[in-house]
Amino acid sequence: MRAWLNISALIAIVLAGQPRAAAPALVADVATIGFTVSDVDRAVRFFEEVLTFEKTSECEVSGRPYELLQGIFGLRARVVTMRLGDERVELTEYLTPRGRPVAEDLRPNDRAFQHAAIIVSDMDQAYARLRRFHVAHGSTGPQTLPSSIPAAAGIRAFYFRDQDGHFLEILEFPPDKGRAAWHRRDRLFLGIDHTAIVVADTDASLRFYRDTLGLHVAGESENLGVEQEHLNNVFGARLRITALRAERGPGIELLEYLAPSDGRPSPGDLKANDLLHWQTTVTTGTPSEADAALVRARATLVSPGVVRLPDAALGFTEGLMVRDPDGHAIRLTAVPDHLSPQSRR
């Protein structure tokens, strides 16, 4: 009996040392990056006039399925989708119930922080355009990341804020970095490369995004120095950055502040109608399987399960919303064939 136990223990040790099998890719596409706004008409004008996005759809939704999906009782909302290149943002105004504004003291190292990174062909022209529209600064000014950060060397970036206080970023890649599409010169604003979220523990976030949802790690970097401090507007900033990708769509970038470590957690009572709320919508072939995987992973559910919608007004017919370990919202959806990413392009 003792020999059998010893052999069993040896097998367990050997198996523990084997490479872990890759998780099945529950997520096929990062479809939209969305957030809640106080006035959707004003937000549309901002994205159209300042950033040259194009409005592609608008609807008003209410009723039990939408309440269950978003976790908001008595919901009535206007939802507008806007496109830049192949990527989309979703702007949602809750007509009822109204949520809370973004706190004025929100900092880029707080874990509720999220932004969308918009690629530009010319940083100087893009920054000058933002100044003409009197856009609020998030960074002290455009920053060029130095050669001491090899993975980011030569990237130029600038944080700014919309009228509700949401952070956005413009970013220009040097010739040796970024997709070929990010080096076009036929227009100033090209598309959305990624959404970035602040996390407390990269490894815990990887267990959610990589091991449960099946996104893959596309790049890693550790960023520090005066340029990074001025970009994030955080004195002494030192970040562990992990880029994640699905098969299609923008990336999801994890920002872990190794220093300073005083970033505040996301409010425990954050709701989808609060202006601090962002939601990254991803597509999955089988929401029921995704739901089961998220329950096994003990994810924080916003929806009580897979919700079937009465129509495809939002671009999908069933889905559910969860929060990651730091409170960032992910909405997993099933998209009808005629609205699939391939048919939309």
Description of the structure:
This protein has 345 residues and is of the alpha+beta class. It folds into two domains: 29-96 and 274-344, 2,3-Dihydroxybiphenyl 1,2-Dioxygenase, domain 1 (Roll), CATH 3.10.180.10; 114-259, 2,3-Dihydroxybiphenyl 1,2-Dioxygenase, domain 1 (Roll). The chain contains eight helices and 18 strands. The protein has helices spanning 2-16, 40-50, 64-70, 123-132, 202-209, 226-232, 287-296, 341-344, and strands at residues 29-36, 54-62, 76-84, 87-96, 114-120, 136-137, 143-144, 156-161, 167-172, 189-199, 216-224, 238-245, 251-259, 278-283, 300-301, 307-308, 318-323, 329-334. The strands form two sheets. Strands 1, 2, 3, 4, 14, 15, 16, 17 and 18 form a nine-stranded mixed sheet that branches. The longest helix is centred in the N-terminal third of the chain and has 15 residues, at 2-16.
pLDDT < 50 stretches: 1-22
Structural class: alpha+beta
Determine the CATH topology of the largest domain. 2,3-Dihydroxybiphenyl 1,2-Dioxygenase, domain 1
Second CATH tier, the architecture of the largest domain: Roll
Q: Give the C-level CATH assignment of the largest domain.
A: Alpha Beta
Gyration radius, in Å:
21 Å
Instruction: Tell me the domain tally.
Output: 2
- What fraction, in percent, of the residue positions are helical? 10-25%
Could you give a short account of the major beta sheet? Answer: 9 strands, mixed
Number of helices: 8
Give the CA-based shape: globular
Portion in beta strands: 25-35%
Mean pLDDT: 91
Quick one: CATH superfamily of the largest domain? 2,3-Dihydroxybiphenyl 1,2-Dioxygenase, domain 1
The strand count comes to: 18
Ends distance: 63 Å
Write down the secondary-structure element order. Answer: HEHEHEEEHEEEEEHEHEEEHEEEEH
